[in-house]
Amino acid sequence: xxxxxxxxxxxxxxxxxxxxxxxxxxxxxxxxxxxxxxxxxxxxxxxxxxxxxxxxxxxxxxxxxxxxxxxxxxxxxxxxxxxxxxxxxxxxxxxxxxxxxxxxxxxxxxxxxxxxxxxxxxxxxxxxxxxxxxxxxxxxxxxxxxxxxxxxxxxxxxxxxxxxxxxxxxxxxxxxxxxxxxxxxxxxxxxxxxxxxxxxxxxxxxxxxxxxxxxxxxxxxxxxxxxxxxxxxxxxxxxxxxxxxxxxxxxxxxxxxxxxxxxxxxxxxxxxxxxx
Length: 276
Fold this sequence. Notes:
This protein has 10 helices and 11 strands. With 276 residues, it is α+β, with helices and mostly antiparallel strands. It has a 4-stranded mixed beta sheet with strand order 8-9-10-11, with helices on both faces. Strands 3-4-5 form a 3-stranded mixed beta sheet. A two-stranded antiparallel ribbon has the order 1-2. The longest helix has 18 residues, at 117-134. The chain starts with 21 loop residues before the first strand and ends with a helix. It comes from Nocardioides turkmenicus. Pfam families: DUF559 (PF04480). InterPro entries: DUF559, Restrct_endonuc-II-like.
């Protein structure tokens, strides 16, 4: 089970050819069609972990991992393999899910302890959003974070506290991570914008109700075509007429120009705060 989880793609590594078993270690072989990350884990006697595990769980990521991440026991001696990152940790049994992969909760906290905030928040938001179907809760994540060794525990708990299942995708999670440090700003994912002139209830990607500021993450997929274009123009005109300030950012700016996004939001927050 491997999913495309972001706007970019990467070449798969250690790919199995259909119908051909690939020899691993000892008597182990990979079954035809076994995902590459699981083949790497079996070859090393470990489990798929980190961003590789998040990809297997089909969560929305900032970008596809460029290497396969595998966790093995500390006392296990295995040579490094090209394209594979090996982490040596002794995992408790409840941290390992079915199919040679870290559990959902363990995957979140492993990512949270080492990744930059924007990448870690994508994983945590997506896991909680997925939890509506899988049953994973914030309490599960807190318990997993608290079970970590001292190194990384605090960071994992911070990310778990910030995680929000209302974020719709990695685009929104990364945008929220960019604006979180801005003083005077407090945004809610999929926040309430009240009712439109036509009486329809409205929500926005990131909403600060106190400042009446809406930050939108704009993708072509949701705005292409004549009718979506007209609908969006009318929506934003209605919001501005009601006193809202609207900022709209595209994928490339959020993912590649975070400083630009932060500066623009800071300018508006300063202006709105001074006028309040």
